[in-house]
Amino acid sequence: MNGFAPGDRSPPSIPSLSIIGSLLNCPCFFQQLQKKYGDLYSLMMGSHKVLIVNNHHHAKEVLIKKGKIFAGRPRTVIKLLVNSRWERYSVSLCMFGEGSVSIEKIICREASSMCDMLTDPEHAVDLAPELTCAVTNVVCALCFNSSYKRGDAEFESMLRYSQGIVDTDSLVDIFPWLQIFPNKDLKILRQCVSVRDKLLQKKYEEHKVNYSDNVQRDLLDALLRAKRSSENNNTSTHDVGLTEDRVLRTVGDIFGAGVEITTTVLKWSIAYLVHNPPVQRKVQQELDNKIGKDRHPQLSDRGNLPYLEATIREVLRIRPVSPLLIPHVALQDTSVGEYTVQKGTRVIINPCSSESVNITKYTESSNPIGRFLNEEGDGLCCPSASYLPFGAGVRVCLGEALAKMELFLFLSWILQKFTMPTGQPLSDLQDKFGVVLQHKKFKVIAKLRADWEKNPTNAAMLGKYIMCVFCTLETFVREFVFMKPAIKYHKSNMNKMNILRQCNSMININ
Ligand code: HEM
């Protein structure tokens, strides 16, 4: 009965073996099954019972109405290696909320160095390394207060391990017994995780040596402070999940979740813009009209750049990089719609079930970007109920705010300064299914836009230097003039979320 209670009303069930091959090659494969089996059906993936949810009413029931019942995550092999307790994210990721001035500065600094690296009008280049570098540096700055230049040995090893994790295919998750056989992917994954663990341990030791109760440089400091505070109050760190191992894993997990998906969405966005020159032109017109060339875009411009925001939403709609979200698990016997679901059943929400389109099929008349704009086209409208690129409910993506800031700032900085003409041969932008939905490698020419060619050292450059000086001064004042209060960590206040909220408010002040 595929995990659905005997005698109860179970959803239509699909034979298991026939689907495995196609599933791994085609993320929207479930869309085809939907036509045959309806919105809700079950199947066996290896030994796991899986319920596939294809319509947004059922998706909302799983994610929101019964979010706590479906809050489990499968114990996949990859997850066991890469991260073990998703709950801990709440400790750290609430730090990445909007309005965080310091995060904006970090992203703009990275956007600026990325733009400096892109100027090669003659040759088509693969933008992926620069995008990965920028996104990784944002996460490094948040976690360790470090930023790296390309070529730095530590940084390169970080990039390698992120890639290694992403490239692993999920066959072992479907058939866990495959672990006992030699498996190249799993071996690489284990090596990557070992590199990561050594690096994290090194950062942790450095932070312990330089730690001060009065200065909070990054997430690692915030977690160290919370850990020490709990120890000073003579409480067991074990009770509140702040052992050394947990601190390290929390920071490590942010890399796993934060770097690759954001980089992949950026790559898809560039691909989309190159394939759709009218969209690129409209975004640039909007940037020229609303921002001009004397300064760079800031987060506060988001409300004034609806076309760019709508374009980002469209890319997330047509290429949801976590195509099957991350499976949820039913923590008790329950139901979805009219069907019963047994405890332990995995649930996959299929975001491709709504009208997913091919990336090359944009036309002016179909105007898919318009779906995110109001009638006048000068503001955003509410996306449809089935639009869930970051999931929803208790397991919603905890990096959503950070990811949106990065997508907006990186893309607006690139498009303000560069144009990516279509005259170049375009590669076939096919999906490559892995941990995230990646596309095959492609190269583009990033040409400086006319006004930037004429006057490369314009006011925006001056603005950049003023910002640097301002940042340095601000750091000095914050760290040496104002002494930050330590996180209060009382027995009565032992809840993880409380600690994190305190970390959050402290970071947001920075
Ligand atoms: C455009 C970029 C991103 C997209 C499209 C994305 C999408 C998603 C999706 C679909 C989920 C699963 C939600 C569910 O199961 O209901 C998820 C979970 C998660 N994401 Fe993201 N994500 C992005 C960036 C980030 C970043 C930058 C971070 C952290 C720095 C992050 C951290 C997480 C975490 C920790 C979870 C697990 C939440 C849990 O299990 O409770 N994500 N993300």
Distance between the termini: 55 Å
Spatial order of the strands in the main sheet? 1-2-3-7-4
Strand content range? 5-15%
Structural class: alpha+beta
**Gross geometry:** globular
- State the name of the first-level CATH class of the domain at 89-319 and 359-454: Mainly Alpha
The helix content is 40-55%
Gyration radius, in Å: 24 Å
CATH architectural group of the domain at 89-319 and 359-454: Orthogonal Bundle
Map the helices and strands.
Elements: E1 13-14, H1 20-25, H2 29-37, E2 40-45, E3 48-53, H3 56-65, H4 77-82, H5 89-93, H6 101-118, H7 128-144, H8 153-167, H9 171-174, H10 184-210, H11 219-232, H12 237-240, H13 244-258, H14 260-275, H15 277-290, H16 306-318, E4 328-329, E5 334-336, E6 339-341, E7 346-349, H17 400-417, E8 418-419, E9 431-433, E10 437-439, E11 447-448, H18 450-454, H19 459-481, H20 496-509
Parallel strand pairs: 1-2, 3-7
Antiparallel strand pairs: 2-3, 4-7, 5-6, 8-11, 9-10
The protein binds protoporphyrin IX containing FE (HEM).
